[in-house]
Amino acid sequence: MTFRLPEALQTSDAAAAIALLKRYYGAPYLGAGCADGAHFDTWATDSDPMRFTADDLLAVKFLSVEAPKTAVRALLRDRADEFAALLMELGPDRDLADEDKPLDNSWPGWRLEDKLRLIPGVGRTTASKLLARKRPRLLPIWDIVIRDVTDTSKDQWEPLRVALRADNLVLHRRLLHLRDALQLPEEISALRILDVIAWREGKDRSL
Q1: Distance of alpha carbon 15 from alpha carbon 7, whole angstroms
Q2: Cα–Cα–Cα angle for 69, 73, 75, nearest 5°?
Q3: 10 Å Cβ neighbour count for 183?
Q4: Which residue among 36, 119, 139, 140 is least packed, with the fewest CB closer than 10 Å?
Q5: How far apart (Å, rounded) are the C-alpha atoms in residues 145 and 108?
Q6: What pLDDT is stored for residue 161 in this prediction?
Q7: Do 153 and 144 contact (CB within 8 A), yes or no?
Q8: Could you tell me if 87 and 49 are in contact, meaning their C-beta atoms sit under 8 angstroms apart?
Q9: What percentage of the chain carries pLDDT values higher than 70?
């Protein structure tokens, strides 16, 4: 399975990608026209990276996700230590492009996602946004808009990892260059730049 790039990234011309990013993040950053989701990236970024917090549950609301009460109880109280251990096993945040081995079934990220999705009311989209809060450089956001643009209905992480690493990390480097060209904060990862481009392009197709 391969990862399909958004059309805005299928040519060397950056104009289309930059236009999509400006519409989402505002021009200047968080200026006129910014989307609610733009606040996801910088909301309480000092949150404990090894534990889900109330700020994480608030941040995903900017991406139109409401964590169910079952998740609030599990992540903040009843199973907080269990999920903290899974985050510790996954390790600190790092770029997905730097993962040099395939993400097979033994990879800790899969176990963490599986445990999240076993919480009643937490589906793939909500789980991905919670994971992106804790590991924004490593774990991408997924929803049906991203799915349709990137052809990731079955698998996302491994095809994306391969795409980011291809040709000496050319896609990863390009995404960071786009971020820097718009003078966006470093908290906004390469994965998030890709997510915004794909999501905004997919939403435009549905208009």
Answers
A1: 12
A2: 110
A3: 10
A4: 36
A5: 26
A6: 98
A7: no
A8: yes
A9: 100
Distance CA 90, CA 207 (A): 39
Instruction: Name the token pair of 72.
Output: 């609030």
And the tokens for 60? 């995903």
What tokens appear for 85 in the block? 């251990």
Q: How many residues does the chain have?
A: 207
Cα gap 83→134, rounded to integer Å: 11
Output the DSSP codes for 2-31. -PPPPGGGSSS--HHHHHHHHHHHTTTTT-
Per-residue tokens: 88:
């510790």
Tell me the average pLDDT across 26-47. 89
Domain map (residue ranges) of the chain: 7-205
DSSP 57-78: HHHGGGGT----HHHHHIIIII
- Contact yes or no for 96/161 (Cβ under 8 A): yes
Say which residues have a Cβ less than 8 Å from residue 29's Cβ, sequence separation at least 6.
182, 183, 184, 185
Could you report the per-residue pLDDT of 127-167, keeping only the tens digit for each?
A: 999 999 999 999 999 999 999 999 999 899 999 999 999 99
d(CA 123, CA 144): 12
Structural tokens at position 29: 């950053």
Say what the pTM is: 0.96
